[in-house]
Every structure is written in structure tokens, then in C-alpha cells.
Specification:
Layout (H helix, E strand, L loop, with lengths): L22 E2 L5 H10 L7 H14 L13 H10 E2 L4 E7 L5 E6 L5 E8 L4 E4 L3 E2 L17 E2 L2 H14 L18 E4 L9 H12 L11 E5 L3 H11 L2 E5 L5 H7 L8 H9 L10 E7 L7 H13 L4 E7 L13 H13 L32 H8 L5
This protein binds S-adenosyl-L-homocysteine (SAH) and iron/sulfur cluster (SF4).
Length: about 400
């Protein structure tokens, strides 16, 4: 039966108007930008062209000052400056790991903080971005899930994380210079703080902006959205975003998954697998990533490995399995499986014909690894209980 009231948490909405009455152009879809430019006095006949021009300045060239938009008439630049700003989240701290991983703490409206991690590899550079401050879900192995403060990020704050990283990597193109095809920031994973499918519209709008060929221009195949299993939103992800999908699977029985990933109490493993099997984009070249965190004595037995394969085969899901050595955090209730155990588990999966890479732990020295992200701001306005009560959540 289709659940009628999915656990949801539109906890706070941030007004788009800034205090001084100016509107941030970052994060607006093309249609929204057109409306904004019209409202500011742009002529109807010119609106589409103006959107194209401003869009390219912001998202292709990385320009932040209307005065630099040199193909626009001076008085039009003045009109833009009177009405709008181009504003990104502010970087308040940057840590660089011995292995080159960069962790940024960025401040967003209201003084909240989220973390963004950049992971350089030989053939790519991946930016791990956040979709919420904290997370209302309470996965028992995840540090973010222990954070009390929760709010959805706006589209501007989500795409702003990408623009901020391009600033830091100095990767905006320079007019007149040849285009550098080897991008430092080539991939995006929505694997930072928060559950992206509980902030669907803002995540979608931000990813559409990141994919737009006239701007940041990332291919949809280089964007991976990770979800804990918000079943009703999975099909929408394929239809409205079209990116790759990763699923935080982590357990092979409902009994264990109910504890590790409590959203499982709402949508059980079987229901989740059916939604994955139906994911319209899934194919051999665009496999679904099953993320599986290795917790000693909890989910790492040979039987678990066989059950995992059985689930995937039974539903015929094009899949790869990403084994994540558990990243311990202060007070975490689990231990990481031994390397031998992880290898034995990986081997069973490999023998069954599936790729089973073991995720390398990066940025350990700066607490930048998966699931360790938790901003320092703990001035909780609301407890998770309050938020759930407001959202009318039926737990269990
Ligand atoms: N909320 C989304 C995306 C963010 S979490 C989700 O749950 O999928 C990104 C990945 O890190 C998820 O697979 C999550 O289960 C995993 N993770 C969380 N805490 C972890 C930890 N302490 N060690 C290893 N992986 C962890
Ligand atoms: Fe939220 Fe994902 Fe952490 Fe679970 S694993 S608490 S869904 S961020």
C-alpha cells in the first residue's frame, strides 16, 4: 500500500528576499530568474536573452559583480545591482588533509553551518555536498544523525557549495584562455549532511543548475545522489533529476536494518528493492550503488554477503556494491570490521559477479570521512523530537 504520510521535514523555509530587499540570483531556475528580471523592470522581449547572459556570467564565468558583466549596457548593470546580489555561503573554516582532501565549514543564513568535502583522485575530483543542516533520520552509526539542529538548505545554498569549491580550486574559466578539460571538480556526490530526498525540490533545482550546459555543465552521470531509502521519491529522482543513485543499504534483514537505518521501519527492504528495480535510469552502464558500511559483528557475516547478493539478483538490479569501512566518531556505538573480514565479504560479492570496491578512507586526520560530518554549531533551536512532532511523523 502506498504510504499516505511519508516522514517529512520541511522544517524551515528561508525567505529569498535578503534583508536589504535585494534578491539572490544564485539558486533560481531559469524560469525563476526570468520572473525576477521581469519584476525588476527587464523588458519582456529581452527577458530570455538577459537570462542567458546573466546565467553565463554567474555559472560559466563565476562572476560576482554585476559591473563585470561587460556585454550588458551600463544602465542595465546598474538595474541588476539595485535589485539583486550574487551570494554564496561563506567559508568559515577550511582544513586540508595530508592526502589532499579538503573540508570546508560553510556558514549559511541564520548562522547555521554545513560541511563540504573535496576529494581529489587521479582521474577525477569529487565534491561531497550537503543537502540539510543535520538530518532528522537517526541512523545509529551516523554522526550527522546525532545533530539536533535541522533545516533544509535552499537551492542557492546547495549549488553555492559547488561554486564555493570552484572558487577555492580557482577553477572558473578565464576569458580568452583555452578551456581546461581536465576538471579538478568533475563529480558531485550528495553524501554530505542530510537526506537529499527529504529536501527534494531544492536538491533538484540545484542539480539542474549544476547540469545546465551554459554554466557549471556537469553531466548527470557525474552526479550521484545517496539516499537512506525514501521509497516514494526514488522514481522522481530519475524523472526530475536524472542523476545516478546510491542507496544506503547497510543491512540484509529488516530486523538489523530497522536498527541501523530506522527509515526501514517505514519502507521495508522488499519495498525498497522493488523501487530500485524500477529505477528508470538503471542499466549496466548506470548501475545503482549499494553502500554498505562494515560494522564488526553487526552486518558483516558471510551470510550477510550471500543475502545481499540474493536480494540484488532476485530483483535483477544492475548494481555495484561499495563497502565502506565504518568511520568511528567519538562515542560511536559500533566498531569497524577487521580488514580481513571486509576482504572476505568483498570476495563473496566479487565471486557472485559484482564489483565490490572497498571505499578508501580519506581525510581521516580532519574528520572528513563519510558519516563523520557534523557541524560545530549545536545551538539547537529545536530538538529532533519537536521537529518530528511538528511534521506529524509516525515513528515505528
Ligand atoms: N542521508 C544520505 C546521504 C548522506 S550519508 C544517506 O544516508 O544515504 C552518506 C553515506 O555515508 C551513507 O551511505 C551513510 O550511510 C554513510 N555513513 C554514515 N555514517 C557513516 C560512518 N560513520 N561511517 C561510514 N559511513 C557512514
Ligand atoms: Fe541521515 Fe544519511 Fe546519516 Fe542516516 S546516514 S542519519 S539518512 S545523513
Amino acid at each position: 500500500m502506498e504510504p499516505t504520510s511519508p516522514i517529512t521535514q520541511d522544517v524551515m523555509t528561508i525567505p529569498r528576499k535578503l534583508p536589504e530587499g535585494k534578491q539572490n540570483l544564485v539558486g533560481l531556475t531559469r524560469a525563476q530568474m526570468k520572473d525576477a528580471l521581469l519584476a525588476a523592470g527587464t523588458k519582456e522581449k529581452q527577458a530570455k536573452m538577459r537570462v542567458n547572459q546573466v546565467w553565463q556570467w554567474i555559472y560559466h564565468w563565476g562572476v560576482r559583480d554585476f559591473a563585470d558583466m561587460t556585454n550588458l549596457a551600463k544602465d542595465y548593470r546598474a538595474l541588476l545591482a539595485e535589485n539583486f546580489v550574487i551570494e554564496l555561503p561563506e567559508v568559515v573554516q577550511k582544513l586540508v588533509s595530508e592526502d589532499g582532501t579538503r573540508k570546508y565549514l560553510v556558514k549559511i543564513a541564520g548562522g547555521h553551518e554545513v560541511e563540504v568535502v573535496y576529494i581529489p583522485e587521479e582521474d577525477r575530483g569529487t565534491l561531497c555536498i550537503s543537502s540539510q543542516v543535520g538530518c532528522t533520520l537517526t541512523c545509529s552509526f551516523c554522526h550527522t544523525g546525532t545533530q539536533k539542529l535541522v533545516r533544509n538548505l535552499t537551492a542557492a545554498e546547495i549549488v553555492g557549495q559547488i561554486m564555493m569549491a570552484r572558487d577555492d580550486l580557482e577553477e572558473w574559466p578565464v576569458p580568452g584562455e583555452p578551456k581546461d578539460e581536465t576538471r579538478l571538480l568533475s563529480n558531485i556526490v550528495l553524501m554530505g549532511m542530510g537526506e537529499p530526498l527529504y529536501n527534494f525540490d531544492n536538491v533538484r533545482d540545484a542539480m539542474k543548475i549544476a547540469m545546465d550546459p551554459e554554466g557549471i555543465s556537469l553531466s548527470r552521470r557525474r552526479i550521484t545522489l545517496s539516499t537512506s531509502g525514501v521509497v516514494p521519491e526514488i522514481a522522481r529522482t530519475a524523472q526530475e533529476i536524472g542523476c545516478l543513485l546510491a542507496i544506503s543499504f547497510h543491512a540484509t534483514t529488516d530486523e538489523t536494518r530497522d536498527v541501523l537505518v530506522p527509515i526501514n521501519k517505514r519502507w521495508k527492504i522488499e519495498e525498497l528493492l522493488q523501487a530500485l528495480a524500477a529505477y528508470p535510469k538503471a542499466s549496466n552502464s548506470e548501475r545503482i550503488t549499494f553502500e554498505y558500511v562494515m560494522l564488526a559483528g553487526v552486518n558483516d557475516s558471510d551470510e550477510d554477503a550471500h543475502r545481499l547478493i540474493d536480494h540484488i539478483k532476485r530483483h535483477n538490479i544492475p548494481a555495484k556494491i561499495n563497502l565502506i569501512p565504518f568511520n568511528e566518531w567519538p562515542g560511536s556505538p559500533y566498531k569497524r570490521s577487521s580488514n580481513n573480514r571486509i576482504r572476505a565479504f568483498a570476495n563473496i560479492i566479487y565471486q557472485a559477479g559484482y564489483a565490490s570496491p572497498i571505499r578508501k578512507t580519506r581525510g581521516d586526520d580532519i574528520m572528513a570521512a563519510c558519516g563523520q560530518l557534523k557541524s560545530a554549531t549545536e545551538r539547537a533551536r529545536k530538538s529532533r523530537k519537536q521537529i518530528e512532532a511538528e511534521a506529524g511523523v509516525a515513528q515505528g
